[in-house]
Amino acid sequence: MLRQTFGLLLERWTGLRTVQVDSLAGGRGLLADLDGDIALAVVSVDTSDGPDIGPIERLYELGLPVLAFGLEVSSVPLARALDAGAEDAISLGTPVGYLVDRAAQLVMPGPVIASGETASRR
Question: What is the mean pLDDT of the chain?
Answer without folding.
Answer: 77
